[in-house]
Amino acid sequence: MKNSTKSVGQTANQRSVQGMAAHTRPVRWFDHLAHLVVVAALVGAAVIGLFGESAATSEQGVASPTAAPVAPVPVAREVPVPTPIARPEGPRSVGELQPKDASPSVREIVSEGLPSLDAGSDGIVRVALWGDSLAYEAEDFFVGVFGGHDVVVETGTMGGTALCDFVPHIEAQLAQAEYDLVVLAFSGNALTPCMLDAAGNSLLGAAHTDAYADALDAVLTIARRSGTHVQLAAGPIGPAPSPEADRLEGLYRRVSIFNDDVTFVDTDVAFSTDGEWTETLPCLPFENAELGCEGGEIIVRAPDGVHFCPGSGPAINGVTDRCSRWSSGAFRYAADLAQPALDALVA
Q1: Cα–Cα distance between 283 and 330 in angstroms, integer?
Q2: 263-280 burial, b for 16+ CB within 10 Å, e for fewer?
Q3: Where along the chain do its domains lie?
Q4: Dist CA 197 CA 193 (whole Å)
Q5: What is the pTM of this model?
Q6: Domain 12-277+316-344 falls under CATH 3.10.20.740
Q7: 3-state class of 346 per DSSP?
Q8: Using CB atoms within 10 A of its CB, is residue 7 exposed (0-12), middle (13-18) or buried (19+)?
């Protein structure tokens, strides 16, 4: 087993407001709790130690909706290794699969999990997480949950960004190394130039979905050159409905259903009670009073209802402060994003 190393090159340490509040769905938090308990058991005290390390840093940045974002820089970490993933024949184009409506029949379909995941031709299992501010809040935990496996985990996140901002970066990274899994956690921001119309306004409705579909089509074309599996995740359920969020999740689900090299992760399940947004959820087994558990409940969403950090300040142009306390919501989101890969790792 390799020694654990960590090389940090943070993406400008920015976080974003997920410009979308999500929908509701009749699912219960305890349907998903078993996965979180498993992850918590694997991480244990190491996760709490990770929180202590990350809490020592507090920074703030602003993502301007009129300025091009700084190119994201991956955070590469080697954690103690686990197969090239089976690829489909004749993959479908994202353009063929854009939902005209966020129909319940589409949104209720859940794609199958990942095939087996082990070392490719380079002898390394390499996983990347790229995304917006929710991914930024969760990235340290995402790396931490792979601590019991020999996996190289890279992260590159930036607040306020959309998938179209990352296409050049993803192309460059996949040309340099062999990735077995790429996790894309973009919840629908429309603040940066590639998500603005000619008048400088954020894209809405079908134009918003089309922009994400075009970017996703580009990423899948890039990923298929090297046989990289892609996992998609929208933002978890929000306090108010959003047509854009519903359409985007519908797109992600459709693409995963019709393409064997794409998987969708439903993050709503771990963040809702009876399908409704909630600020608090039952504490995880290791969460005690010191971490914020009170009366068996713990805060999982920020005051803005979208982010995770309890008591955090307001977002500015899609960017929030670094969380200075334990964030149960960020941990749960990271567990959601990592669970398919953990299930697919070959011992």
Answers
A1: 13
A2: bbbbbbbbbbbeeebbbb
A3: 12-277+316-344
A4: 8
A5: 0.72
A6: no
A7: coil
A8: exposed
* Rounded Cα gap, residues 128 and 218, in angstroms: 17
Q: Are 343 and 34 contacting, i.e. CB atoms less than 8 angstroms apart?
A: no
pLDDT, one tens digit for every residue, the chain (347 residues): 333 322 222 333 322 223 322 322 333 333 444 445 445 544 444 444 444 443 333 333 333 333 444 444 444 433 322 222 232 333 344 444 433 333 322 223 333 456 666 666 677 889 999 999 999 999 999 999 998 888 999 999 999 999 999 999 999 999 999 999 999 999 999 999 999 999 999 999 999 999 999 999 999 999 999 999 999 999 999 999 899 999 999 999 999 999 999 999 999 989 998 889 999 999 999 999 999 999 999 999 999 999 999 989 887 777 777 899 999 999 999 999 999 999 888 54
Cα separation of the two ends of the chain: 12
Among candidate residues 261, 234, 238, the one with its CA nearest the CA of residue 249: 234
Show the tokens assigned to 284.
Answer: 């995880």
Q: Is the dihedral of CA 137, 306, 29, 249 positive or negative?
A: negative
DSSP structure class, residue 148 = T
CA distance 123 to 101: 43
